[in-house]
Amino acid sequence: MPLRSFVFRYSSRVSLLFLLSILLEPAFGASVRVTTYNILNFPDALGYERLDELRTVMTYVAPDVVVVQEMISNEGASLFLDSVMHYVNSTYTHAPFHNGPDTDNALFYRADRINYLGATYYTTTNRDIAEYRLTMSGVPTDIYLFSVHFKASQGLSNEQIRLQEATILRERLDALPTGSNFIVAGDFNIYYSDEPAFQMLTDSLPNISGRLIDPLHLTGNWHENSNYASAHTQSTRVDQLPDGGATGGLDDRFDMILCSAAVIDTTGLHMIDNSYTICGNDGAHFNLSINYGYNSAVPPEVADALYWASDHLPISVDLDAEIGSSVSEQEVMIWPNPLQTSADVILPWHEDFLKAKITMTNILGQRVYEEETQNPAGIRLSRGDLPVGVYFLHIIIETTYSRYQYRTRLAIIK
């Protein structure tokens, strides 16, 4: 899946970016932007001096919900809210700050678009893992958003600590209900796809429903490898700056957003195709500072802001769902369920019915069956060569005046 870049075709002043973001912002539908950003020991590492740059970055990214890593204190969270996020939009608020060992995670969200349901924190030998439970306004489906900051640096002992952290996280993901919408975002400090921590998170065993999927599907050694230049997120600068951030230019894929199969799936609540964005990475700054020469992904002032704001780049994905549509497991009937050879899918009645599209996905989010019908009663579903397992049916019903969406589960047995 290619990386999407934000391309700004002309030069403008920083003062215009904020104005344009307000004037040109589209009316809110069901789509929301989820962002992760390691903000470099904020506010201790010259945080007050970096406020202007952080404002420019956040204004440009325009997230609806953002998790940050390396937040130092409750005072820092309040400062970031008041002096950065409120500069972008006055509706932002933040989850209660959790002070764990070392640096911490923090959640900021637009209260007019996101409903915050609560948080849970999981202790590791290094830093706590944050779990935030959210819903999008108008969409009843829960989203579990995790923010992580795994152990840094190379070496077997550090890899082992990251594996321990990943194991704690995976145990939690495996315990979530099958088909849950969960996203894990943050600074993983992982150097290559075969590292045990990454394999722990993305392996289908022991419970396939807790498996994380990399939307970019990148395998190999990401560290110091120009073949992965478009995926690198650290460091934004070559030389040492007074804030103490990492140096060396862009050469590591530490920051990632990984998703459950339900989020990767293209029906229901889902990640929009090609929305995975590493802000400022144009693929042409391997081992260079983000603002060196010409950056084709962002305006010059944004590239400069990314350089000074942090040694990491922010990453975003966009989620979408049908607002106002009906999402129900009770109104679609499947008989028999579990299925052995065939079953009837009975659709809920809608006046002025035009057509229905029925899509079946497996637990990995892969589409295994699709049919469109003009029969308002439903369809006869034959098993064919589908293996034993749990599947998800996604039904979109179109009527003369509206569109309705349903989702339900189907089991196939011997």
Description:
This protein has 414 residues and is α+β, with helices and mostly antiparallel strands. It has two domains: 14-320, Endonuclease/exonuclease/phosphatase (Deoxyribonuclease I, Chain A, 4-Layer Sandwich); 333-412, Sandwich (Immunoglobulin-like). 19% of the residues lie in helices and 30% in strands. The chain contains seven helices and 19 strands. The strands form four sheets. Strands 1, 2, 3, 4, 10, 11 and 12 form a seven-stranded mixed beta sheet that branches. Strands 5-6-7-8-9 form a five-stranded mixed beta sheet. α2 packs across α3. Residues 1-29 and 323-330 have low confidence and may be disordered.
Sketch the topology as an H/E string, one letter per element: HEHEHEEEEEHEHEHEEHEEEEEEEE
Number of helices: 7
Portion of residues in helices? 10-25%
Number of domains: 2
CATH class of the largest domain: Alpha Beta
The total beta strand count reads: 19
Shape assignment = globular
Q: CATH topology of the largest domain, which one?
A: Deoxyribonuclease I, Chain A
List unreliable stretches of 5+ residues: 1-29, 323-330
CATH architecture label of the largest domain: 4-Layer Sandwich
Largest sheet: 7 strands, mixed
* Secondary-structure-derived class: alpha+beta
Q: What is the end-to-end distance?
A: 36 Å
List the helices and strands and how they pair.
Blueprint: H1 14-23, E1 32-42, H2 51-61, E2 65-71, H3 74-88, E3 92-94, E4 104-110, E5 114-122, E6 129-136, E7 142-149, H4 156-175, E8 181-187, H5 196-202, E9 255-259, H6 261-264, E10 270-271, E11 277-278, H7 300-309, E12 315-320, E13 333-335, E14 342-346, E15 353-361, E16 367-373, E17 378-382, E18 389-399, E19 403-412
Parallel strand pairs: 1-2, 7-8
Antiparallel strand pairs: 1-12, 2-4, 3-4, 5-6, 6-7, 8-9, 10-12, 11-12, 13-14, 14-17, 15-16, 15-18, 18-19
